[in-house]
Structures are given as structure tokens and as C-alpha cells.
Amino acid sequence: MQTKIYLGDWFFNSGIVGFLRILEHNNDNFTQIKDNYITFDTQSLKNFHKYYFNYFFDKYNVANRTKDKINQSFEKIANALKTESADKAEIKRIQERVKSEKKYIKSVIKTQLDKIKKIDENVYQTISEQYNEIDAVKNKEDIDKLTKIRQVIISEIEKDDINKRLTMNLFKSILSNKYFGQPSFLNVVNTKLSYEEQENLMYKDYISNIIETNFLNKILENNYTLEQIKENISEKLSKGLLTKEVIQVYTNIQKKFIEKDKDIEEIKKYISEKVLNYCYMCENEKTLTTNYSEGNFIPLAVSSDNMKNFFWNQNAKFPICDTCKLMLFCIPAGISSVSKTVQENVNGQVTYREKEIFGFVNNDVSVEELLQYNNNLTQSSKMDKTIHNPYSDLILSIVEQKKDISEWQLQNIFVVEFESEYLAFSRVEYFNIKRYVAKFFKNYSKMFTAISDYRYKLQIMDYILKNKDIKYVINQRLREEFEKDIPNGFNNYLATKVRLILNLLKKEDCNMKETIKKNNNKLYVLYSLGVAIHEELKAKNEENKLDGYVYKMLNSIKSGNKKEFMDIVIRIHMSMGKDVSPIFLEVMQNSDLDFESIGHSFVSGLISNKLEKNNEEVVSNGNN
Q1: Cβ atoms 162, 119 nearer than 8 A
Q2: N or C end of the chain: which has fewer CB within 10 A?
Q3: Gap between the Cα atoms of 45 and 308, Å rounded
Q4: Whole-number mean pLDDT of the chain?
């Protein structure tokens, strides 16, 4: 039976993306991609359970992951042992390096050893013997022994039954904890089943009903005689790959209709009125359904049966068809893992921690574009984080690939971030690209990409997409930079210009391009003035004078106290025997330049130097 699956809500769309990725990974693209839907014959799904397992096996392959982790450390140990030196300090450093790498290798292997013991005692003993020999490798003569240890450990972990079990348990744990809880083969009671048995369990719970819906609809279309229905049902029941619900349906047809010599019309009436239902998600009217619950997608569901008091009249029923259920089960393949920088306060010190969250870019206009955007996001999230920001890379790649893309098309894209843990919590955040943000990335993107600190860019992009004022990020970062031995103010200056442009674009003025250029020039004058003052104090060995001034200025900017800020500016100039630059009087009276932009630009210059100022050539007056 040919079926069409249309784009819908973001989580359903992410399932469509995942479904297409799984098929592409297994080189079986039996779907046709149309503008806003995909179509395929449901009979083509008969091997999809194997494709699904193969996709996640390759993605989380434990043997490959372990090999990648320890190979480099084994190489480092071998190279260190080959190094000859008469310097005692150097010898000690080499020994410490070897000790550190050994510790890392043992920790990686130990993580898998306890799991392997439950799978195969002989493999466990073999790896344990090599594991215990690692510390015995101490000099150049032991390099061959080291090579043997590596080869034996890797070859044992790569054994098919070991690697399959380890990898399956890993991806099952991820799917269960982050997405679905414990339905079907993800339930802990099925842990002892073999890899193939768990594949078949997925077929039974997620695919068989789709195939059987096709059979039931063909009965309604008079494609089978009574004898053919009888033969088909008997064959299907004998294979043991049907859900309890379908077994009950077929048993009823056998006992209540076929054995009682009822005609096909009565069977059709039973199927139409009692078996096939309406799907609330895709609006298919003739399909087998199950109730939507947390087992379909943890972040956007509750345990319906246990929380009926949360529903109107305690009606917790929301039937969905098995095709929709399968699409939702493909969500993990359609989602990208994105690194976020989280600011934390540890013992009074501001620290930054990398956290992995799940991200998806939604666009309900075109399946091709939806797939392309999310493939770009996945690729960007894998790149070197020191120079790449996945969201900015995504938006910029869209602009670059589609030169004629309209601001409306950019606005029609929105990003979803979520994180969840089974039986613990779930958090979902949505943010779309506002009109002025779309204009910024279409016309002023070089300003943003010139910021060299990737964590800073992550924070700024996060604030921009969530429609938050980045002045708070800039003020905090200026404080942190000033505390460093070699502070860098140039990134903060660029961030200030980004903020200014965003604020001006919000006004939707038709002459905004000229206004942006004029005000960017003024910010550059303020920044340059700060750099000049810094250099002059540095030449006189009086840099320490800035300590009190900078913090007071940042406090006055944060509190919006213009009078205090100007008092400090005047004191700085007076202490240097200079007249106050007229630029301050000019910009303070300029309605297009806000106080925070003026203050942050000047302070950015105060903590910078000539070398950073020369970097201004990277961005030509703030315009692309």
C-alpha cells in the first residue's frame, strides 16, 4: 500500500529526517521525496528493523570507539619509551607522561571489562591478562610487548558477539534514557535476548502493524477471497511476529466469522467499525492505532494511563497510527547533538562547562530543505568548536547556499533544543529567527564571524536566537577579560557592534544602512580612544591606574548611571593632562547610540592594545 507522510510539527519532522537518514545509511532509498511529504510502499518496511539497528550500531560502535580512544595513547607511550635523554628532569617528565597515558588506557578498558564479564568469561579473562600487563611496560625493550597488548585487547573487543552486545546495550541505554523510556526491546526485561531477537521484537512492535494495516485495507477493497483471508491469517499467526492486538483481531475473524461461515461483508464491517480507527496525528481514517504516551517521545508526553486526572474528563486517549509511531521512533536519528557553553559559579569563581544538548532545525516548507538544514547542523556540530558555532554556521550556510533567500524564508526557520532523562526531567526550548536577526545574518554576518572566541560566540548566538539583550554577556566578559594577565578587548568591541546593529535593525528604518555605517564609525573612534589611552599609560608604566577605573565604569554601565561614567572619563583625561574628547559629548546626545554601546566600546579599547586594534582590518567599518 502506498502511503504519504506529510511534514507536521517539529518532533514529527525530526522523525521524518531520521527515517530518511536511516534509509540512506543502509543504501535503500525506497522513498520518494516530494515537496512537503514523502511517499513509499509500506511493504518496503519489512527490513526496516534491521536498518534501524544497523544505523545505531554503526553510530555507537563500541569497538571502534574504544580503538580510537586507546590507539593514540598507545602510540604516545611507544614514542615516549623511544625517547632518550640524559636530562633527569626530562626523564621524569617522560615517565609522568607514560604513567598518565597508561592510566587513561586502563580506565577506558576497565569501563568495558565489567560489561564483558557478563557476556563472555573467556574473553574477559584474556583482556584482563593484557590489562594487568600494561604497568609492566617500562622501557624501550617492552615496545613489542606493548604492541601485543594493544592488538589482543582490540581483537577481543572486536569479536562479533562481544561488540554487538556492548554496542546494542549502549545505544539502547541512550534511546531509553533520552527519548522513549522502556517500550518494546528497550525494556530491561529483554536485555538477555540476542541482537537478532531484539531486532525481531522491534519488527513486531513497530512495523508489523503497518504491514497488517495494509492487509486489512485490502480486505476492505475486496482484494481477497474468503479462502485467501483464511490462509493468510493462519500463516501470519504461525510466524509469531504479530502484536497482541492484531493476534486478537485475527483470532476473532477466525472464530467469529470464518469458522461460523460468515461472509466477507460481515468481516469487512467488523474491520471497519471495530478494528481500524482514526489517527489524530496524520488524520488517516483507516488504520490500526495505539495511544500516544511517554513511550513515543519522553520530552513531549506523559504516562497517560497513570495521569488521567491531567486530562479533560479524564480522557487520556490520543490514538496514533503505527506509521506515525515508527516516524517518532526515528527521532534520535534526526536530531543533532550540539555543544552548549554553560556559565557556572564555583566557589565564587565564574567557570564555563561544555554541555551536550539535542538540537533540531524546523522548516515545514520543504522536505529537501529540512533534511539539508539538519545535515548542515549535524556537520557543524562535529567541527572544531574553537572556530565553529553550529547555529551560526547553519544560518550562514543557508545564506551562502541560497544567495537569493528572502528574510521571510529565514524567519520561517526555528530551532528546538531539548534535553531529557527518563523518570527525571525534560526541558524543551524553542526559538525562531526574528525579522531583524534575519536581516543581520543576511547583510552583516562577517561582524559576528570575526569574533575569535568560540565560547563567546556560542553565548552571543544563544542570546540572539532567544531574543535576549547581549549587553549582559558583554559586560560580564569584559570583567573576566580584565582579570586576565593579557586581556583581549577586541572581541568585546565586535560584540558591541553586533548588538548596536541588531538594535538599529529592530527599528525597521528605510535609511538604516547609512545610520549603521555612521554609528559603527563612532564606536570605532571610542574604541580607538580607549586603546590610545591604554598605550599611553603603558608607556609611562601607569597601567595600574586603569584597575579601579575599569570596574567602576563597568558598574556604572550595568546600572545605567551616565553621570558616574562621565565623571570617570573626565578623571582619566585629567590625570593624563588631556582635554576630554568631544566624541563623548557627541555620542551621548545621539539617539541612535545607546549608553551601553558607548561605554562597552570605550572600555573594550581601555583593556586592549595596538596589536588588537590592528585586527579591526578584519571587519571593514562593520559592513560586509
Answers
A1: yes
A2: C
A3: 34
A4: 87
Tens digits of per-residue pLDDT, 419-455? Answer: 888 888 888 988 878 888 888 887 888 888 888 887 7
pLDDT digit string, tens, across residues 168-204: 999 999 999 999 999 999 999 999 999 999 999 999 9
The answer on pLDDT for 623 being more than 80 is no
Indicate the SS3 state at residue 8.
coil
Q: Residue 252: how many CB atoms within 10 A of its CB?
A: 16
Distance CA 156, CA 119 (A): 12
* Contact yes or no for 590/557 (Cβ under 8 A): no
pLDDT at 249: 95
CB atoms within 10 A of CB 611: 10
Question: Any idea what DSSP says for residue 179?
Answer: I
Do 504 and 592 contact (CB within 8 A), yes or no? yes
CB 608 within 8 A of CB 530: yes
Predicted pLDDT of residue 621 = 45
> Distance between CA 174 and CA 63 in Å, rounded?
17
Q: pLDDT of 339-394, one tens digit each?
A: 776 666 667 676 767 778 899 999 877 899 899 889 988 887 776 555 556 776 67
DSSP-assigned beta bridge partners for residue 277: 287
d(CA 68, CA 199): 27
- Amino acid found at 166: L
Nearest to 354 by CA among 367, 365, 339: 339
Summarize the chain as % helix, strand, coil (round to 5): 65, 10, 25
Crossing angle of helices 322-329 and 10-25, rounded to 10° = 70
267 vs 258: CA distance, rounded Å = 9
381: cell is: 556540530
* Closest listed residue to residue 573, CA positions, set 541, 530, 613, 611: 530
C-alpha cell at 154: 582490540
- The Cα-based distances of 304 to 149, 179, 574 in angstroms read 52, 16, 71
Distance CA 70, CA 447 (A): 41
- Residue of 77, 168, 69 whose CA lies nearest to 111: 69
Identity at 419, one-letter amino acid code: E
Q: What is the pLDDT of residue 624?
A: 44
Q: Is 571 helix (H, G, I), strand (E, B) or coil?
A: helix
- Return the closest-CA partner of residue 333 out of 73, 48, 601, 565: 48
Residue type, 473: V
Residue spans of alpha helices (H) in 176-309: 195-202, 208-220, 226-239, 244-252, 264-270
> Which single residue is written with the C-alpha cell 477493497?
221
Following DSSP, what letter does each residue of 377-413 receive, concatenated? HHHHHHS-TTT--HHHHHHHHHHHH-TT--HHHHHT-
**Distance between CA 94 and CA 553 in Å, rounded?**
48
The interaxial angle of helices 490-506 and 512-539, nearest 10 deg, is: 160
Distance between CA atoms of residues 321 and 287, nearest Å: 6
High-pLDDT (> 70) share of the chain, %: 90
φ/ψ of 523, rounded to 5, equals -65, -35
Q: Look up the pTM and report it.
A: 0.79
